[in-house]
Amino acid sequence: MISIRDRGLLYGDGVFRTILARNGKAQLWHLHYIKLKQDCAALNIPCPDSDLLSGQLNDLLLRQPEGVVKLIVTRGEGKRGYAMPTHTESTIIWDISPLPAYPTDWATQGIIARLCQIRLSQQPRLAGIKHLNRLENVLAAAELNDDKFAEGILLDVDNNVIEGTRSNLFMVSHGKLVTPGLSQCGVAGVQRERIINWVIQNKMPLQIREVGLDEVMHADELFVVNSVIGLWSIRELEQRRWSGFPVAKQIRLHLEDADGLPVSVTVS
Amino acid sequence: MISIRDRGLLYGDGVFRTILARNGKAQLWHLHYIKLKQDCAALNIPCPDSDLLSGQLNDLLLRQPEGVVKLIVTRGEGKRGYAMPTHTESTIIWDISPLPAYPTDWATQGIIARLCQIRLSQQPRLAGIKHLNRLENVLAAAELNDDKFAEGILLDVDNNVIEGTRSNLFMVSHGKLVTPGLSQCGVAGVQRERIINWVIQNKMPLQIREVGLDEVMHADELFVVNSVIGLWSIRELEQRRWSGFPVAKQIRLHLEDADGLPVSVTVS
Predict the structure, then answer these.
(1) Among B97, B132, B159, where does a domain finish?
(2) B88 touches B76 (CB < 8 A)
(3) Contact at CB, B11 and A157, closer than 8 angstroms
(4) ipTM for the complex?
(5) Distance from CA of B187 to the nearest CA of A (A)
(6) Are B69 and B24 in contact (CB under 8 A)?
(7) Total structural domains in chain A?
(8) Looking at the structure, do residues A83 and A194 belong to the same domain, yes or no?
(9) Inter-chain touch B132–A10, beta carbons under 8 Å
(10) How far apart are the C-alpha atoms of A71 and A95, rounded to whole Å?
């Protein structure tokens, strides 16, 4: 339970992380903490200390070693009104849910995705941040009203392709790995960052830029990533079909390396 | 206290009202309920019954007859993930804060406002709704870092003038009352609606449309309204000064008529 005066509830004034826990270990915790700290800084929310959070996370995983961990950090309570309180004590919230049971062929054979009708708004001050203002994602997810659709692909108001409803998007196009830039909208997830860094370190061709729908529909490969699903190739999107996924397979091998890779650059 | 699994906290998946209570009476409650119901419908959130809410509100005002009442209705709890649960039980939250102590000359002599730097994003699916995704308002309010500024005026990404950080904006220009249209962003408040209806019923000239900054700076009068402040004329905005406010005075007389007026049309 949290206070009804917490700004996380009143204004969505907070940030969160979704973390996969297996065998009592939080996957990619160090990357999640770095991103949490960046997101808190972007909203001027004091970020709880790494040791404090690690200790709380360990206690949680001792009780329940497997599941999807949600960590929320809000600006805490304050006086009535939008103005940020002068002295804030951030609220820390932990929760854990059972591991989701996705059909196994989604990871191996790819998923069917659809294009969402809703367009993401552009707000550079909030772009990239995993904050608690997620009504656009709620409306987008409501468009996936058929179980056959594993994910929905979102465009922004300028018809740039941005991301999935709960994932980041990559495509392989003309021999290059391409992922949409997130300077105007979208959430920059840690799996996206891992892939970007791995590709850069391996000197593979990469572009982070505006992506049009036409290009997506003509891509050689498409895949979505997040911390819970890992990587899903898209095998069908609005009548267009793909198969094979050689680049995605190579990247998935890397993502499944549980130790991950150090983060040397940050791209958003 | 509310559950940490409430979608109001997790996604800002809910709507709210801010209601002025005086002498044990909630001002304009019937208008607030109509707007609550419209906002719930826009997000497909089941709206609690009017009698239920009225009863809870009366109980609250018996204990504390004066203050600013906040009513929040969220989509309630559901499974992990953005998708709306099939069966939802809305969460109802009531809170009451002391009446704010604004300088008395703000209502009589007008306020000093500033232009905010942040631009409102455009999202027609959420425009007009008083929902819980309010990070833009939080960032805007943070720009009012000097007590002399009573309000901040917000433009959208296309540089249309939209509203105040917590109020709706009107101007008098070439003998007409003008208020920005809210089809792309902004919150359509009940005081704005009252004024629109009163002006229409009195066959006074009114325009609801796109408004540019240049027009605002050349207006004959400017004022902001909401349910708590009532009406504040703007006497200074970025070096431009106004005085007199004859139209605002006339409208304030109407707003202070405690019975209000029936709502016959809805404009957003």
Answers:
(1) B97
(2) yes
(3) no
(4) 0.94
(5) 14
(6) no
(7) 2
(8) no
(9) yes
(10) 7
